[in-house]
Specification:
heterodimer, A: mainly alpha, 26 helices, 8 strands, globular, B: mainly alpha, 11 helices
């Protein structure tokens, strides 16, 4: 079969990204050309990246090389494409390709049509930087890619810069990302000074640090990557930034960019610092569980489609971390086979989430273009007007809910298995109890996600339109529908072929230390199992066949008995009144029982105002306003920023504005450094 | 290939058997309830008459509805049918062993619920939305309790595959562990919640303030409604069967022979009747809870599951 040299392929892709960026800049007057060049080039480059990463996963080896050499100083930047990097590159390319195609059509619409040059160039730069993050083999290259990625994303979040909310989102994203990057740099300093090298291979050999310093570095890294991944409580930027960006970028952020945090947690925290102690795994597991449950709870209360999806990203990051955390605890407990199940669940879900969340975001983009709004309460009835977008969105909704036979089910099934067997990794009863509790949290998450997506899909696509713009919606052009169809097909494929996915993941896991994936996990292309032996096998394809047979049985039952085959259409009974948008159930009402039940989490404030003229019993208008309390923003971040600002206020005296004073600072600094060096010698 | 064909044939037979018996369960419970209230009650076979009647009727669908509305009952029905093939009923292994075990079963039932709850939103009537919202809410609350209970029962076998659990219990020979009582009580509450029984939901009501499941399917009629009713009955029977598998599998056949199979049918029917009686007693002696009191009931179930686990571990 055709096989591509991974290094060559990635170089070609990178070159293509660069060339089309420059070409797009040169052709900036002809925006249609810019779009074709920029997004078409990005699509081709992503396809090449995908082929290269598949080749790397097939070979299972590591391709190393040099990105950049400065001969005079002997400084060089290296890359290494190992199976873990290849896996994440594959995830990136699987999503970047449809996004690029989608953007071809999407960027034609206002307000992006006039910003196509910016969008196309920055999109290419962003893809390039993410690739660099995954393949960097030393700290400098990694941080360069990381920072370029952050800045490109921030710029894209502020695409609609006239909008103060976009500017605020971009600013918040920058601040939070840099807090994260700061803690990463601190960790790298400790690691680099202890190992005397900047190469990730040396840094992450696992024997660099011991004792409390190792714990500190773990915490710094977990925090740094956690900000990027959007785990609770470091998530505050995420629900602001995702909706503000253009849809394609939102899809990329949610599908891939937050996964760079997961990449970091897996590569650095789980496998880069030696055998992780139990406490690290417990921390990751607990953060995962809390992120999953709170993420979906907050998502339920959102009525802006993009914000809703953004909170679901937090939820899914939580699910991924549940798998990774279970894997880490198993490593600590000396269960390399069980650890492989947990890690595989996490990495499998990374890909699945990229696919179905990308699909849902693209669907939202279609809806926004067609109706001009993302508010669920103003939509409705779109399935008849946008049949393809609606059908694809439904596939994504079923997949993200973790229902068989689609892909979300496969990875959540693995996560459940890791949690079921997790108690074997410890003999500590309290720790053993943690696993079933985590499983219950995962179950709650899945069921709440189902409620949320019944709402999101039903209110957006079913029944009657709730606004004139929804009533006038038209199906999106083919260039925007095809990418969605492709992602929907992937949802099915990744769901019914878990054996194929695990085959690729097997290569990844063999390359990681402390893991011994049992060969029995792969049961042919369509099946997988968590353990050796006959039990606990899942074959989603068989479930799909059983479902189809069930559908056939339903059709049969109806057909055999039916006397008249015609279907009569009749208006829905409107309870004696006129049926219309105002009689439909609303998204707010739909999620209200859950708001009442979980009011300890939401702490809602409600205002009901009845406007009446004649008598209070005959109001002509009732106004209902509900708001949930932004707990983390109010109780964690507000006090924190207040304190930081107050401290900055006090430090203002240092900034005297006098050159002499500044020179004095420099002298004091240099002297104290000299003294310190002299002292420690 | 032969093996595959045989397991699919077994699956089809088992699904057909449960489909045939399911209306009897509901009829039996109705009859017993009536007797407890010293009423005559409908005939035992009323469920079958109702299904036949509904299936013969004309299909009427809302003008505003799309294909999702038409697919709702069918998917719900198909999911319930597919789920039956994942549980051991008479034989000590599920017909489609290796298709997904109990997680597959729970997942596929959730798929059916997802389809029906979405479809309920499609007519534009406020009832559908109300029912859909309440159904999904209660399902969300019941899910963690269900998972805790399942985990407790699956721990001994170390597998979430029902066949393995059943065979493990048969081999161990232990009939009852203390934690099982708690886990069973917890799962029984889940059963009540998931199948829409009093005190969580009242299958006999059409009062708008209290309907949950009935509100969701209010707009359906004729063959569509028949499929929903049939699938709901099947689902109830399936949940009972799963509880039997988890806690009292004794009597289930381990070989395909006339003797053991006859014994298995008798044992399964007897145990299912015990559960039916338990449901009847609970329904007859309790009043329906207010919607916002249901979380407390489910919390009890969650607590029971947790204590059962703690007993196993500590």
């Amino acid at each position: 079969m055709f096989s591509l040299n991974p290094a060559l392929g990635l170089s070609a892709a990178a070159a293509l990204h660069g060339v089309v960026s420059v070409a797009a800049l040169l052709a900036r007057r002809r925006t249609e050309w810019v779009r074709r060049l920029g997004f078409g080039g990005a699509a081709v480059a992503s396809a090449i990246t995908g082929l290269a990463s598949v080749a790397a996963l097939r070979s299972g080896g590591v391709s190393r090389g040099v990105l950049f050499v400065h001969h005079a100083s002997g400084f060089s930047l290296d890359y290494a494409i190992d199976p873990l990097a290849a896996w994440f590159l594959l995830v990136l390319s699987l999503l970047a390709l449809p996004i690029a195609v989608f953007s071809l059509g999407y960027a034609r619409h206002a307000p992006l049509n006039t910003r196509s040059v910016f969008l196309a160039v920055t999109f290419n730069v962003l893809l390039l930087s993410v690739e660099l993050v995954f393949i960097a083999a030393d700290v400098i290259g990694f941080l360069f890619g990381w920072e370029l990625m952050t800045l490109a994303t921030a710029a894209l979040v502020a695409t609609e810069y006239e909008n103060p909310e976009s500017r605020r989102a971009a600013y918040l994203y920058l601040v939070m990302s840099h807090v994260g990057t700061g803690s990463l740099i601190a960790a790298f300093f400790v690691l680099a000074s202890a190992s005397g090298s900047g190469s990730l291979a040396t840094l992450l050999a696992g024997d660099v640090l011991t004792g409390p310093r190792r714990d500190l570095v773990f915490l710094l890294l977990f925090m740094g990557f956690g900000v990027k991944a959007g785990v609770i409580p470091l998530h505050v930027w995420l629900p602001e930034a995702h909706p503000a960006a253009p849809t394609g970028i939102s899809a990329l952020m949610s599908g891939v960019l937050i996964k760079t945090g997961i990449y970091g947690i897996v590569r650095f925290c789980a496998f880069g610092l030696g055998t992780p102690p139990v406490a690290w795994g417990v921390l990751v597991l607990m953060v995962g569980g809390v992120s999953a449950v709170l993420g979906v709870l907050y998502a339920l209360m959102q009525h802006d489609l993009k914000r809703l999806l953004a909170y679901h990203s937090i939820e899914n990051i939580g699910i991924i971390l549940l798998g990774v955390g279970a894997g880490m605890i198993a490593i600590a407990g000396g269960q390399p086979g069980l650890a492989a199940v947990g890690i595989a669940a996490g990495l499998y879900h990374v890909m699945n989430h990229a696919v179905f969340k990308g699909l849902l975001f693209l669907g939202t983009g279609s809806v926004t273009v067609a109706t001009g709004t993302r508010q669920i309460e103003e939509l409705g009835g779109l399935l008849r007007r946008m049949p393809w977008t609606g059908a694809c969105f439904l596939v994504g909704a079923v997949a993200i809910t973790g229902l068989p036979p689609l892909n979300g089910f496969a990875s959540e099934w693995l996560a459940f298995q890791a949690l079921l067997h997790g108690f074997q990794s410890s003999s500590e009863p309290l720790l053993q109890l943690l696993f079933p509790v985590a499983a219950a949290m995962l179950a709650l998450t899945g069921a709440l996600a189902a409620a949320c997506f019944v709402k999101a899909f039903g209110m957006t696509f079913l029944a009657l339109p709730r606004s004139a713009s929804a009533a006038a919606a038209r199906e999106a052009p083919a260039s925007m529908v095809w990418p969605q169809a492709m992602l929907a097909a992937l949802c099915v494929l990744l769901g019914v072929c878990p054996g194929v996915v695990l085959g690729a993941l097997h290569t990844v896991m063999v390359s990681l230390p402390h893991l011994q994936p049992p060969a029995e996990m792969i049961r042919g292309p369509f099946g997988m199992a968590a353990t050796a032996g006959p039990s606990a096998v899942v074959t989603p394809g068989v479930l799909a066949i059983a479902l189809l047979v069930g559908l056939g049985a339903a059709a049969l039952a109806v057909m055999v008995m039916r006397l008249r085959s015609a279907i009569r259409r009749a208006p829905t009974w409107g309870c004696g009144g006129l049926l219309g948008a105002h009689t439909e159930y609303t998204a707010t009402a739909f999620s209200k029982p859950l708001m009442m039940i979980f009011r300890a989490v939401y702490r809602p404030t409600r205002e009901v105002e009845a406007l009446a003229k004649v008598s209070p019993y005959f109001p002509y208008e009732v106004r209902y306003h509900v708001e949930i309390e932004p707990t983390f923003e109010r109780y964690v971040y507000e006090p924190l920023t207040d304190r930081v600002l107050r401290m900055a206020e006090r430090l203002k005296v240092l900034q005297a504005g006098s050159l002499h004073a500044y020179l004095g600072y420099v002298i004091v600094l240099v002297l104290s450094l000299v003294l310190m060096v002299w002292w420690t010698r | 290939m032969n093996e595959v064909l045989r397991s699919f044939a077994g699956a089809a037979l088992q699904a057909a058997f449960l489909l045939a018996v399911a209306p009897l369960l509901r009829g039996g419970i109705k009859k017993m309830k009536a007797r407890m209230q010293t009423r005559q009650g409908p005939p035992l076979l009323q469920g079958y008459y109702d299904l036949a009647k509904l299936l013969r009727k004309e299909t009427v669908r809302s003008e505003t509805a799309s294909w999702v509305y038409a697919m709702g009952p069918r998917t719900y029905f198909a999911a319930a049918v597919a789920a039956t093939t994942l549980a051991p009923v008479l034989m000590a292994s599920a017909p489609l062993e290796g298709a997904g075990g109990i997680l597959g079963l729970v997942g596929i039932l959730a798929l059916g619920r997802f389809a029906l709850a979405s479809a309920a939103l499609d007519t534009g009537s406020p009832f559908g939305g109300m029912g859909s919202s309440r159904e999904m809410t209660i399902a969300a609350l019941a899910e963690p309790a269900l998972m805790l209970g399942l985990f407790t029962s699956a721990l001994a076998a170390g597998s979430l595959d029902l066949g393995t659990v059943v065979r493990g219990e048969l081999a161990a020979g232990v009939l009852f562990r203390p934690s099982d009582i708690l886990a069973l009580s917890g799962l029984f509450i889940v059963l009540i919640a998931e199948t829409g029984r009093i005190p969580v939901d009242n299958p006999a009501t059409h009062l708008e303030l209290t309907m949950i499941h009935e509100a969701m399917v209010l707009e359906y009629s004729g063959p569509d409604l028949a499929l929903v009713e049939w699938a709901s009955a099947l689902k109830e029977l399936l949940y009972i069967t799963v509880l039997i598998d988890l806690f009292v599998p004794l009597g289930i056949a381990t070989t395909i022979a006339a003797g053991p199979l006859a014994l298995a049918v008798a044992a399964w029917a007897a145990k299912a009747s015990v559960f039916a009686i338990a449901i009847t007693i609970v329904e007859s002696t309790n009043a329906k809870l207010r919607l916002f009191r249901v979380p407390e009931l489910v919390a009890v179930s969650l607590g029971l599951g947790f204590i059962a686990l703690a007993i196993r571990f500590l």
